[in-house]
Specification:
About 15% of the residues lie in helices and about 30% in strands. The chain is of the alpha/beta class and about 300 residues long. The chain is globular and about 60 Å long. The termini are close together.
């Protein structure tokens, strides 16, 4: 079935997935049995993973490495991996050793479909900076981030942890105060000498991240100490939007009231929410299934359709 690309000339549009713009150098399946998991690796090193079901588990010791890993074993061990950024949407599990030794990986975006992050999934990865785990993730398996060079990991929810942060001594872990993020060891109760890094507990109320008495609009904002406000939440958002020149007065109220419900459109570009708008992370193209296309076309008059 062909997909359709739409451009909506509306202020607010519904959520849909989008396509990355670039030249694909490699594609294929990356799913477990009965899963419909697909990947596209672009020439610039960006990796898109999408579909349904679980990603495969890999084992380089048995000669089963992730398909985006180098074919040459020594290159794989040396970390000469082409992947520089990853966007994961639709699938429910990030597989074991999925990004092992991806020493060039600097950015990972995990969609709200992901429920489980398998053990060693991000073992020995590159400098990820701030890594945000959305609150939809329900389980992080032991050693998921061991030896990772991530600087900060923000856990937005309260997932089950099975020693997820074993061997992560250099990482600052922003942890919901209702979650015990300390190193839990392996299933047999043993605790490695190299335990988890610095645990920074925060409070979350009504979607607001609270750390040291300050409000933050997102987990990543909290980690980098930006967009801070000590007022009521909506006043805080208004201050930030106005300070950045994005809107004024009632226009800001419109953005705030629709945040999280619809895509936001500003200066001809669409954004997932206010946080994406503030950071300039706009969605380049919209992709619809035929069923979605028929629904939108039947309800709106200003829709242009292109085959992809």
């Amino acid at each position: 079935m062909k997909k359709l690309i739409f451009t909506l000339s509306l202020t607010l549009i519904p959520f849909y997935t989008f396509a990355y713009e670039g030249t694909i150098s490699q594609s294929g399946s990356c799913g477990a049995t009965d899963a419909d998991c697909h990947y596209d690796l672009y020439e610039d090193g960006h990796l898109e993973i999408s579909g349904t079901g679980e990603m495969s588990n890999w084992n380089y010791r048995e000669g089963r490495a992730a398909p985006w890993a180098p074919a040459n074993a020594q290159e794989f061990i040396d970390g000469n991996n082409a992947v520089t950024s990853v966007n994961i949407n639709g699938i429910t599990k990030v597989g074991r050793w999925a990004f092992l030794w991806c020493n060039n990986l600097t950015d990972v975006q995990i969609g709200n479909s992901v429920k489980t992050i398998e053990g060693a999934a991000f073992e020995s990865t590159g400098n990820l900076g701030t890594f945000v785990i959305p609150d939809t993730v329900e389980k992080i398996v032991a050693t998921a981030f061991q030896r990772s060079k991530a600087e900060k990991i923000v856990i937005e929810g309260t997932p089950e942890l099975e020693g997820a942060f074993i061997r992560t001594p250099t990482i600052s872990i922003y942890c919901n105060q209702n979650l015990d993020c300390a190193d839990h060891g392996y299933d047999d109760g043993t605790i490695p000498s190299n335990k988890s890094g610095t645990i920074i507990p925060y409070e979350k109320q009504g979607g607001v991240f609270i750390l040291d008495g300050k409000y933050y609009l997102s987990g990543s904002d909290m980690a980098v100490d930006t967009n801070v406000c000590d007022k009521e939440l909506n006043e805080c958002k208004r201050d930030v939007l106005e300070a950045k020149g994005i809107c004024q007065g009632s226009a800001c109220d419109t953005f705030i009231q629709s945040d999280g419900q619809y895509m936001l459109k500003y200066n001809g570009k669409t954004y997932q929410d206010i946080n994406a708008l503030l950071k300039g992370n706009y969605d380049r193209r919209r992709i619809y299934t035929i069923e979605e296309a028929n629904f939108v076309a039947g309800d709106k008059n200003r829709v242009s359709i292109k085959y992809r």
